[in-house]
Structure formats: C-alpha cells, structure tokens
Amino acid sequence: MDFSKSMAVAASGMRAQTERMKIIAENIANANSTSPTKGGDPYRRKIATLAPTFDSELGATLVNSGKALPDKSEFRTQYDPGNPNADGQGYVKLPNVDSLVEIMDMREAQRSYEADLTVMDSTKQMLAKTVDLLNK
Amino acid sequence: MTIPAAAAAAYRAAAQMATPATSAAITPANIPGGNFSDFLSGAIKDSISTIRQGESAATQQVQGKGNLVDVVQSVNAAEITLDTVVAVRDKVVAAYQSILNMAI
Lengths: 136, 104
Description:
- The complex is a heterodimer.
- Chain A is an alpha+beta fold.
- Chain A has two helices and six strands, in the order H-E-E-E-E-E-E-H.
- The longest helix of chain A has 36 residues, at 99-134.
- Chain A is elongated and about 80 Å long.
- The relative contact order of chain A is 0.21.
- Chain B starts with a helix and ends with a helix.
- The chains are: A alpha+beta, B mainly alpha.
C-alpha cells in the first residue's frame, strides 16, 4: 500500500538523521582530541553526507547516509610549549571542530528527524481514519 | 451564452473518469482473486505475517538488537493491519447476522 511506502521513506529519513547525529556526536566529543603521537595531526572533523537511493522494490526514493567525508579545513593551533604534543615552535594542533557549527548541524538533524516523525504520525492518522470508515 | 472551451474539456475529462477503464462486465466468474472466502483467507494470512514481523521486531528491540525506527515501522504496520482485519470481520459478522435475522 502507498501508506506503507511513505512510512518506509520517513523511516529511512529517520535512520539517516540518526547516522548524521552519530557523526555530529563524534565531532563534539572529539573537539579537543589531540594526536596520540608527537607533532601528529589531531582529530579531523567529519562531514555527514546524505544520498538519495531509489528502492525499486518499494518504488520510492529513500535517503541513505553516505560515507562520512573528512573536513579539509586547517587545524586550530594553540601556543602551549609545555604540552608534550607541541611542535618545535611550541604550538599544539587542535581539531578543526567548531562547536557552534556542530550545534547548528545538530539542531538541523533534530528538526529533520522531527519532520520525519510528523510525516509518520500524519500517515498513521490518515490510515487509521480510513480504517475507521469500515467501522461505521 | 457560450461555454468556454476549457470548461467543456473539463466536463469531457470528468465524464471519461466516471466510466471505468475496463469495460468488461464483472461477473462472479471473472472477479480477480477468486471468491470472497479466498480473499478473506488471503488477507488474514498476509496480516498474520505482518503482525509476526511486528512481534519479532519488538522482541529484537527488547533484546537490544533492533533499530528503534524499524520497530516503530513494523509495529505500526501490524497495528493498522490488525485494525483492518477486525473491522472487516465485524462487517462480515454483521452481514451474516442480518441474513440470519431475515424474516422468512
């Protein structure tokens, strides 16, 4: 039935946003993770990607979470000569994570998830009201 | 007074929609899907498998294996299916009872 298709599409959106949320959580959790080796690169921010995929069995375009891509921007540096990870000039490389950007991404993921939930809820209501016609 | 061409086209389209696409008359012999009891048992078999899927998804979630979204999806489908089957059953029973209550 077409209602189960829209349910499946909304569910795929929710799964994709869950995956996106996982990557945002990784970015926020690792916002201050430095390199385990001296002078090495710290944690590099990941960017969640979403890709449309046509499900021929369902006959609908679902959304899937694609591969998380590395953010190629520069690392932050902090002058901290006492740090064991500091380079020759006394600078420590910190991850290229901006917590403000992550919070905005998180809000967006949250709102998209809520929108998918609303689609599911409306679909269920439409279906339930149609079934109710049989009870009259 | 002249009827605009667009309105005339709309009337034509509506008239075509009213006539079924397949002009073949439906007789008991050529109803697709066989008779009513076949239809009912098929629908109930389908609904049982849908409800089983919902149950197995719920069990997996309790065991910590399932994805919550999948559980919600399967349980919703099972719930709607059960509601539909119950509604159809009530209709059939009501029809049967009204036949039984007929004055002979």
